[in-house]
Amino acid sequence: MKFFVDTADTKEIADLAATGLLDGVTTNPSLIAKSGRNFIEVVKEICSLVDGPVSAEVTAIDYDNMVTEGRKLAEIAPNVCVKLPLTMPGLKACKTLRQAGIGVNVTLCFSAAQALLAAKAGASFISPFVGRLDDIGQDGMELIADIVEIYGQYPQFETEVLVASIRHPVHVVQAAKLGADVATLPPDVLRKLVHHPLTDKGLAAFLEDWKKTGQSILGR
Ligand code: E4P
Protein backbone atom coordinates (compact mmCIF):
# COMPACT_ATOMS: atom_id res chain seq x y z
CA MET A 1 0.00 0.00 0.00
CA LYS A 2 1.29 3.44 -0.91
CA PHE A 3 1.20 6.23 1.67
CA PHE A 4 0.52 9.80 0.60
CA VAL A 5 0.39 12.68 3.06
CA ASP A 6 -2.62 14.99 2.94
CA THR A 7 -1.23 18.45 3.64
CA ALA A 8 0.29 21.57 2.04
CA ASP A 9 2.64 22.10 4.99
CA THR A 10 6.07 21.76 3.38
CA LYS A 11 7.89 21.34 6.71
CA GLU A 12 5.72 18.35 7.56
CA ILE A 13 6.20 16.96 4.05
CA ALA A 14 10.00 17.32 4.24
CA ASP A 15 10.07 15.61 7.68
CA LEU A 16 7.94 12.71 6.52
CA ALA A 17 9.72 12.36 3.16
CA ALA A 18 12.98 11.90 5.09
CA THR A 19 11.56 8.75 6.73
CA GLY A 20 11.40 7.05 3.33
CA LEU A 21 7.76 6.09 3.99
CA LEU A 22 6.17 8.69 1.74
CA ASP A 23 5.00 7.86 -1.78
CA GLY A 24 3.21 11.09 -2.66
CA VAL A 25 1.22 14.10 -1.46
CA THR A 26 -2.37 15.27 -1.80
CA THR A 27 -3.53 18.85 -1.38
CA ASN A 28 -6.89 20.54 -1.82
CA PRO A 29 -7.99 24.20 -1.87
CA SER A 30 -8.74 24.12 1.88
CA LEU A 31 -5.24 22.82 2.69
CA ILE A 32 -3.69 25.46 0.39
CA ALA A 33 -5.71 28.17 2.19
CA LYS A 34 -4.51 26.80 5.54
CA SER A 35 -0.88 27.04 4.38
CA GLY A 36 -1.37 30.76 3.72
CA ARG A 37 0.98 30.46 0.74
CA ASN A 38 0.80 31.06 -3.01
CA PHE A 39 -0.70 27.95 -4.65
CA ILE A 40 1.74 27.60 -7.55
CA GLU A 41 4.79 28.24 -5.35
CA VAL A 42 3.76 25.76 -2.68
CA VAL A 43 2.97 23.02 -5.23
CA LYS A 44 6.36 23.61 -6.88
CA GLU A 45 8.12 23.25 -3.54
CA ILE A 46 6.17 20.10 -2.63
CA CYS A 47 7.07 18.56 -6.01
CA SER A 48 10.75 19.12 -5.26
CA LEU A 49 10.41 17.34 -1.90
CA VAL A 50 8.84 14.08 -3.12
CA ASP A 51 9.32 11.99 -6.24
CA GLY A 52 5.80 10.56 -6.26
CA PRO A 53 2.52 12.14 -7.42
CA VAL A 54 1.53 15.50 -5.93
CA SER A 55 -2.19 16.23 -6.30
CA ALA A 56 -3.04 19.86 -7.06
CA GLU A 57 -6.72 20.70 -7.49
CA VAL A 58 -8.34 22.89 -10.11
CA THR A 59 -10.87 25.44 -8.90
CA ALA A 60 -12.78 25.95 -12.15
CA ILE A 61 -16.06 24.07 -12.40
CA ASP A 62 -16.59 24.18 -16.18
CA TYR A 63 -14.84 21.83 -18.63
CA ASP A 64 -12.84 24.42 -20.62
CA ASN A 65 -11.39 26.15 -17.60
CA MET A 66 -10.72 22.87 -15.78
CA VAL A 67 -8.63 21.73 -18.74
CA THR A 68 -6.81 25.08 -18.97
CA GLU A 69 -6.09 25.11 -15.22
CA GLY A 70 -5.12 21.44 -15.30
CA ARG A 71 -2.61 22.03 -18.09
CA LYS A 72 -1.13 24.98 -16.17
CA LEU A 73 -0.79 22.91 -12.98
CA ALA A 74 0.79 20.04 -14.92
CA GLU A 75 3.47 22.41 -16.19
CA ILE A 76 4.68 23.06 -12.63
CA ALA A 77 6.51 19.71 -12.43
CA PRO A 78 6.35 16.26 -14.03
CA ASN A 79 4.97 14.71 -10.82
CA VAL A 80 1.92 16.98 -10.58
CA CYS A 81 -1.30 15.00 -10.62
CA VAL A 82 -4.26 17.23 -11.48
CA LYS A 83 -7.14 16.86 -9.05
CA LEU A 84 -10.61 17.20 -10.55
CA PRO A 85 -13.99 17.06 -8.80
CA LEU A 86 -16.34 14.20 -9.54
CA THR A 87 -18.77 16.12 -11.74
CA MET A 88 -19.66 15.56 -15.39
CA PRO A 89 -17.32 18.39 -16.56
CA GLY A 90 -14.68 16.96 -14.23
CA LEU A 91 -14.96 13.51 -15.82
CA LYS A 92 -14.83 15.03 -19.29
CA ALA A 93 -11.74 17.03 -18.33
CA CYS A 94 -10.24 13.85 -16.85
CA LYS A 95 -10.49 12.09 -20.19
CA THR A 96 -8.92 15.05 -22.01
CA LEU A 97 -6.03 15.48 -19.58
CA ARG A 98 -5.34 11.74 -19.44
CA GLN A 99 -5.20 11.64 -23.26
CA ALA A 100 -2.55 14.37 -23.01
CA GLY A 101 -0.54 12.12 -20.69
CA ILE A 102 -1.32 14.13 -17.54
CA GLY A 103 -1.98 12.30 -14.25
CA VAL A 104 -5.47 12.87 -12.80
CA ASN A 105 -6.88 12.28 -9.32
CA VAL A 106 -10.70 12.40 -9.35
CA THR A 107 -11.77 13.68 -5.96
CA LEU A 108 -14.90 14.05 -3.81
CA CYS A 109 -16.10 10.52 -4.54
CA PHE A 110 -18.92 9.31 -2.29
CA SER A 111 -20.45 6.42 -4.24
CA ALA A 112 -19.41 3.28 -6.11
CA ALA A 113 -21.26 4.51 -9.20
CA GLN A 114 -19.12 7.67 -9.19
CA ALA A 115 -15.96 5.55 -8.86
CA LEU A 116 -17.03 3.45 -11.83
CA LEU A 117 -17.39 6.60 -13.95
CA ALA A 118 -13.95 7.86 -12.89
CA ALA A 119 -12.36 4.58 -13.98
CA LYS A 120 -14.16 4.79 -17.33
CA ALA A 121 -12.82 8.34 -17.71
CA GLY A 122 -9.31 6.91 -17.27
CA ALA A 123 -8.51 8.53 -13.89
CA SER A 124 -5.10 7.68 -12.46
CA PHE A 125 -6.61 7.77 -8.95
CA ILE A 126 -10.10 7.81 -7.48
CA SER A 127 -10.42 9.48 -4.06
CA PRO A 128 -13.34 8.17 -1.98
CA PHE A 129 -13.70 10.22 1.25
CA VAL A 130 -14.26 7.73 4.08
CA GLY A 131 -14.23 10.13 7.06
CA ARG A 132 -16.84 12.46 5.58
CA LEU A 133 -19.16 9.47 4.96
CA ASP A 134 -18.64 8.23 8.54
CA ASP A 135 -19.50 11.77 9.70
CA ILE A 136 -22.99 11.52 8.20
CA GLY A 137 -23.64 8.04 9.59
CA GLN A 138 -22.66 6.03 6.51
CA ASP A 139 -19.89 3.43 6.48
CA GLY A 140 -17.00 4.92 4.50
CA MET A 141 -15.10 1.65 4.48
CA GLU A 142 -18.05 -0.14 2.88
CA LEU A 143 -17.57 2.18 -0.10
CA ILE A 144 -13.88 1.20 -0.32
CA ALA A 145 -14.87 -2.49 -0.29
CA ASP A 146 -17.38 -1.88 -3.09
CA ILE A 147 -14.91 0.05 -5.26
CA VAL A 148 -12.11 -2.49 -4.78
CA GLU A 149 -14.55 -5.27 -5.69
CA ILE A 150 -15.87 -3.48 -8.78
CA TYR A 151 -12.44 -2.45 -10.09
CA GLY A 152 -11.29 -6.06 -9.51
CA GLN A 153 -13.91 -7.25 -12.02
CA TYR A 154 -12.36 -5.18 -14.80
CA PRO A 155 -8.59 -5.69 -15.15
CA GLN A 156 -8.55 -3.11 -17.94
CA PHE A 157 -9.26 -0.34 -15.38
CA GLU A 158 -5.98 1.29 -14.41
CA THR A 159 -7.42 3.60 -11.75
CA GLU A 160 -5.87 3.23 -8.31
CA VAL A 161 -8.08 3.42 -5.22
CA LEU A 162 -6.78 6.29 -3.08
CA VAL A 163 -8.53 6.27 0.30
CA ALA A 164 -9.02 9.88 1.42
CA SER A 165 -10.51 11.75 4.38
CA ILE A 166 -8.76 9.33 6.73
CA ARG A 167 -9.22 10.25 10.38
CA HIS A 168 -7.38 7.57 12.40
CA PRO A 169 -5.06 4.53 12.14
CA VAL A 170 -7.99 2.06 12.09
CA HIS A 171 -9.09 3.55 8.76
CA VAL A 172 -5.61 2.82 7.36
CA VAL A 173 -5.59 -0.80 8.53
CA GLN A 174 -9.12 -1.42 7.25
CA ALA A 175 -8.24 0.10 3.86
CA ALA A 176 -5.10 -2.06 3.64
CA LYS A 177 -7.11 -5.21 4.49
CA LEU A 178 -9.43 -4.37 1.61
CA GLY A 179 -6.49 -4.04 -0.76
CA ALA A 180 -6.81 -0.31 -1.47
CA ASP A 181 -3.82 0.92 -3.48
CA VAL A 182 -3.14 4.17 -1.62
CA ALA A 183 -4.07 5.90 1.63
CA THR A 184 -3.63 9.65 1.99
CA LEU A 185 -3.09 10.50 5.61
CA PRO A 186 -3.01 13.69 7.62
CA PRO A 187 0.55 13.95 9.06
CA ASP A 188 -0.58 13.24 12.64
CA VAL A 189 -2.33 10.01 11.58
CA LEU A 190 0.79 8.87 9.71
CA ARG A 191 2.87 9.45 12.86
CA LYS A 192 0.30 7.67 15.06
CA LEU A 193 0.72 4.47 13.01
CA VAL A 194 4.12 3.78 14.57
CA HIS A 195 3.05 3.94 18.22
CA HIS A 196 2.26 1.01 20.46
CA PRO A 197 2.60 1.16 24.27
CA LEU A 198 4.10 -2.35 24.38
CA THR A 199 6.83 -1.25 21.95
CA ASP A 200 7.74 1.64 24.27
CA LYS A 201 7.59 -0.58 27.36
CA GLY A 202 9.60 -3.37 25.72
CA LEU A 203 12.29 -0.99 24.50
CA ALA A 204 12.65 0.62 27.93
CA ALA A 205 13.11 -2.85 29.52
CA PHE A 206 15.68 -3.93 26.91
CA LEU A 207 17.69 -0.74 27.42
CA GLU A 208 17.57 -1.11 31.20
CA ASP A 209 18.88 -4.70 30.98
CA TRP A 210 21.52 -3.71 28.43
CA LYS A 211 22.83 -1.03 30.77
CA LYS A 212 23.46 -3.74 33.39
CA THR A 213 25.86 -5.55 31.02
CA GLY A 214 28.16 -2.51 30.91
CA GLN A 215 28.76 -3.20 27.21
CA SER A 216 28.66 -0.91 24.18
CA ILE A 217 28.22 -2.15 20.62
CA LEU A 218 30.52 0.57 19.27
CA GLY A 219 33.06 0.01 22.05
CA ARG A 220 32.76 3.59 23.38
C1 E4P B 1 -7.94 14.09 -0.17
O1 E4P B 1 -7.35 14.22 -1.21
C2 E4P B 1 -8.54 15.19 0.58
O2 E4P B 1 -7.66 16.29 0.50
C3 E4P B 1 -8.71 14.89 2.04
O3 E4P B 1 -8.41 13.54 2.36
C4 E4P B 1 -9.98 15.38 2.64
O4 E4P B 1 -10.01 15.06 4.00
P1 E4P B 1 -11.00 15.76 5.04
O5 E4P B 1 -12.35 15.14 4.89
O6 E4P B 1 -10.41 15.42 6.38
O7 E4P B 1 -11.00 17.23 4.75
Quaternary organisation: single chain
Mean pLDDT, to the nearest integer, reads 98
CATH level-4 homologous superfamily: Aldolase class I
Secondary-structure element pattern, one letter each: EHEHHEHEHEHEHHEHEHH
Radius of gyration: 20 Å
Q: How much strand content do the residues show?
A: 15-25%
Shape annotation: globular
- Structural class comes to alpha/beta
User: How many individual β-strands?
Assistant: 8
Name the ligand types. erythose-4-phosphate
Largest beta-sheet characterization: 8 strands, parallel, barrel
Strand order of the largest sheet: 1-2-3-4-5-6-7-8
Number of helices: 11
CATH topology: TIM Barrel
Detailed description of the structure:
This protein is an alpha/beta fold. α4 crosses α5. Strands 1-2-3-4-5-6-7-8 form an eight-stranded parallel β-barrel, surrounded by six helices. The relative contact order is 0.12. It has eleven helices and eight strands. It has one domain: TIM Barrel (Alpha-Beta Barrel). The model has no long low-confidence stretch (mean pLDDT 98). The N and C termini lie far apart (40 Å).
Explain the layout of strands and helices.
Blueprint: E1 2-6, H1 10-17, E2 24-26, H2 29-35, H3 39-49, E3 54-57, H4 63-74, E4 80-85, H5 88-99, E5 103-109, H6 112-120, E6 125-128, H7 130-135, H8 140-153, E7 160-163, H9 169-177, E8 182-185, H10 187-192, H11 197-213
Parallel strand pairs: 1-2, 1-8, 2-3, 3-4, 4-5, 5-6, 6-7, 7-8
This protein binds erythose-4-phosphate.
The site of erythose-4-phosphate has 11 residues, from helix 7.
